[in-house]
Amino acid sequence: MPANRILPDFLPQRGWTTHSKGYLIFSSRATRYGIKRGTRAHRLVLEHLMGDTLPDHLHVHHQNFNKLDNRPENLILMPQELNPSGALRDPFTGEFMSKQQYERRYGKL
Fold this sequence. Notes:
The chain is of the alpha+beta class and 109 residues long. Helix content is 17%, strand content 20%.
C-alpha cells in the first residue's frame, strides 16, 4: 500500500489497494465497515459528505490530479463530459469524447 495515500478519518485506514488506473479501492472482505468491495475511495468521500449515493452520470474529479489524495477539499463533483481527466473535445464538432474514442478516430495522442 502506498504511504502517500490520503484518506479522511471517517473511512477505515486499512483494507485499501491501488486499482490499475491508480485509484484507491476498498479490497477488504470485512463487512463491519458497510463498504462494498471494489468501491473507489473518492466516491465514498463525496457520498459520505452528501449523505446519499452519487448518480452514475456524475464523476468525482481530483483537483490536483493526484488519485491518492482523497481529501474532501481536493474533490469536485461534475458531469462526465466536463471531467478534464477523461474527456477530450473533437476538433471538428466540439463534442466531448473519451480518450479511447478520440484515439480510434484520430490516432494516438
